[in-house]
Structure formats: structure tokens, C-alpha cells
Amino acid sequence: MADETTAPDIPTQLEALEREAEAQLSACAADADFNEWRTTYLGRSGKVTQLLRGLGGLPKEERPRIGQLANTVKQRLAAALEAQQAQLRRNEHAEALKAEALDVTLPGEPVRAGQLHPITQVLNEILGIFERMGFHVVEGPEVEWDRYNFALLNIPADHPARDMWDTFYVDAEPVSNLGSMLLRTHTSPVQVRVMEETPPPVRIVAPGRVYRNEATDASHEAIFYQIEGLAVDDRINMGDLKGVLTAFARQLFGGKTRVRFNCSYFPFVEPGAEVSISCHVCSGNGCRVCKQTGWLEILGCGIVHPNVLRAVNYDPEKYSGFAFGLGVERIAMLKYGIDDIRYFYGNDIRFLEQFR
Ligand code: DAH
């Protein structure tokens, strides 16, 4: 009786169970599925173990064979589980590779190259012209003393000429001899700083930022760039000044440029002049850029005032010099036909990119 109902049954049931387990396994697609499957079929109270509970009803001599069989099934199922898991890992890996696949034959993405700011470009160009004429580039501090920005430049305290520069004063105690601390209103103090430390001859250009307490509009910024020039030697005269500045203007604006010197006043030069160039847009015939005058004013200059030379212990009977000062933004505007100074510092990439 027992032979008929259980003994032949267990191997058959085992076989059926193995088929079922294999079918279920092939549907597993994640670690959670595998864990569940393992519990269901191979666990301590899993289906295979349960089946073996019927072993007790078998004749003694049958038991080892059936037990052996059950173990083999368990081993095969465990091996199948491992194989299936390994396959899943391989599939995942292949998919990951595919996702990050790189077509090395595709053209690269262009890197956006940076560039120098247009003011830096013009500044470098101007300095280059003067360097080739023998001038050295020097720099001075942007936070200055009254003494250098004004007093030693022949602009005494309370002199009305100070009205030419709307000054930002620094909130610090004035120092005797040096006076108030301020943001330099021009690069002219570098003239004095150089002469104080160097005996003649001197040939320098001094670029840098200057500050004016000024409302911003199309032609004024509170912060802008200037380049100062100074040449001191024996017998420097107005002819030297005109020659140097004419050569400069022609290199920057073209060889046909005409240069005009008009009398003007700056406390640190005598005589003083304003330099204009013939309008390079209309060749001097009159246009919107030169406001129909045919001329564009580009800088201030003059013969260094004897008081300035005396203040730095240069003997004005022995030495003379010329000086000039120009606004870099203004020159850039004239050179490129830009009608509003605020474009330079507006950080609009469409403007800046035009100066590649
Ligand atoms: N420092 C003057 C200014 O900012 C410009 C200037 C004029 C400089 C005449 C000079 C000069 O050296 O000789 O307005």
C-alpha cells in the first residue's frame, strides 16, 4: 500500500517540483525575486524539504536513494539559481555599458575660448606703441594721497583747479605731509612717484584704473582707465611731444590721420594742450561720430610745469619734459565707433564677443 501511494510518488513529485522551480526561476529578474524563490524552494521549510517529510513513510532501504535524489535536485536548483543570478549581473553590466557608450567618431563639442576684454586689448595696443618708442610701463596705487594726486602736481589745496576732478575721499584720518586718502582721479600721480625715485632721463607710460565721483551716462563712468605718459630729459620740448603723439595717433588710427594741438589748461603742464585727430570715420568731412566737426579729441598733454619738476627735486633749468594723459575707454569708443561707455562694463556677452 505504502509502496503504491508514496514511494513511486516522491521521485515523480521531485521531478515536477524541479520543473516548476526552474520555470519560476527563469521569471526572476531582481534580487528580491531570487530571495523569494530560494525561500520557496530551497528554504528550511521550502517545497523540497516539505516533500522530504514524506520520506518517513518509505521503506528503510528506499530512503537513502530518495534522499540522495532530493539532494541532487537541491544542488541542481542551487546551481541554477547561481547561474541565473550571474546572467542577470551580466545583463545589467551590458546595459550599463550600452548606456554610457561613446561614439568616438562624433565631432567634439567646441570649447568656448575666452578673450581679453576690449579695454584690455586697446590698453595693450596703446602700451605696445609707446613701448616701441622706448617708454617703460609702470604702475602706481589706486588708493592715493592728496599729496600725489594733487599737491605735488601743482594743484594746491583750495585751488579752484581741484574742481576739475570730482574726488572720492577715503574715510581715514589725514596724514601730515600726505594729506587725505582718496581714490586717484587720474594716473598723473604716477609721474610724481616715478620722478621721486628716479633721476632723469625718464620715459614711462602708466596705465591703470581711476575713479571719479560722477553720475554715469553715455560718456561718463565713475571707474575707468587712463594711460599717463611722461618723458623728462635735457632739452625735451614741444616738438618732441608733437612728434611722439603724432606717431602714436597714426599707429592707432591709421597713417593718414592728421593731429591737432589746441591750447588748454592743466595745472601740471605749461603750456598745456588738447590733442584731436582728424575723424577716421569721415576723414574730417563731418559726421555723427565727430559731431560734424571733423575732429575727435583724444587726450590732454603739455610741457611739465617747472613747479612739478621742483617738487621732485629736478632742476627745471637743467631738465624739461612732456606729459600726456588719455582715457582708454574714450579711445576705444572712437576706434570702434561705440556711442555709449556703459557697454564696456555691462557684461553683455553679445557686445564683448565682437572683440575676438
Ligand atoms: N590727468 C589729466 C586728467 O585726468 C589728463 C592729463 C592732461 C594728463 C594733461 C597729463 C597732461 O599728463 O599733461 O584730466
Write up what this structure looks like:
This protein is of the alpha+beta class and 356 residues long. The chain has 2 domains: 2-99; 118-355, Bira Bifunctional Protein, Domain 2 (BirA Bifunctional Protein, domain 2, 2-Layer Sandwich). 39% of the residues lie in helices and 18% in strands. It has a 7-stranded mixed β-sheet with strand order 1-4-5-9-8-7-6, with helices on both faces. Strands 2-3 form a two-stranded antiparallel ribbon. β6 and β7 (269-278) form a beta hairpin. The protein binds 3,4-dihydroxyphenylalanine (DAH).
Q: Number of DSSP strands?
A: 9
Q: Give the DSSP E fraction (strand runs of 2 or more residues).
A: 15-25%
Helix and strand content put the structural class at alpha+beta
CATH homologous superfamily (4th level) name of the largest domain? Bira Bifunctional Protein, Domain 2
Low-confidence runs:
1-7
CATH topology of the largest domain: BirA Bifunctional Protein, domain 2
Q: How widely separated are the two ends?
A: 101 Å
- Per CATH, which architecture of the largest domain? 2-Layer Sandwich
Largest sheet: spatial strand order = 1-4-5-9-8-7-6
How are the elements arranged and paired?
Blueprint: H1 2-5, H2 9-26, H3 31-42, H4 47-52, H5 63-99, H6 118-132, E1 136-137, E2 143-145, H7 146-149, E3 181-183, H8 189-197, E4 202-211, E5 223-233, H9 238-253, E6 259-264, E7 269-278, E8 295-304, H10 306-311, E9 320-327, H11 328-336, H12 349-352
Parallel strand pairs: 1-4
Antiparallel strand pairs: 2-3, 4-5, 5-9, 6-7, 7-8, 8-9
Helix pairs in contact: 2-5, 3-5, 6-11
Bound molecules: 3,4-dihydroxyphenylalanine.
3,4-dihydroxyphenylalanine binds near residues 188, 228, 302 and 324.
